[in-house]
Amino acid sequence: MNEERGRRSARLLRLWSGLDALNLCVFASTPTRPLTIDRLTTLVTAVLGEPFTLDDLLTAGQARLDGMRAYALREAAASDGFPDLLSEDLPARLHDEPITTGLYEGAALNREAFARARRAFYEELGWAHAS
Known about the structure:
The structure is a single chain. By secondary structure, the protein is mainly α. Helix content is 57%, strand content 0%. The chain has five helices and no strands. The chain has helices at 2-21, 37-48, 54-77, 93-96, 111-125. The model has no long low-confidence stretch (mean pLDDT 88).
């Protein structure tokens, strides 16, 4: 279950990144709004004058995410005195301190479940991760 959530999150991020790459509003787009994939690809095809598919959108999204991640990792590595910036781990308190109010009061993020979801997320995006 956690692995599937990680994969779905990566797919959705890739889609929304593709929309961002094309400067299309993610708030008007699928999966929650009326700008469906079919409408979107028809619109972009009309503007470009050549066929544009969902695969093209996802490829643009992946390229954007890869570039953003490479930049973030490069800048973190260049930050002398801040080696912790290279760590992609969440702060321990998110796992150790339960939520104090609201619907999820008493809940804390399970380390193992999160690690499985993150591993699936990274695999879906083709990114290597040590954990």
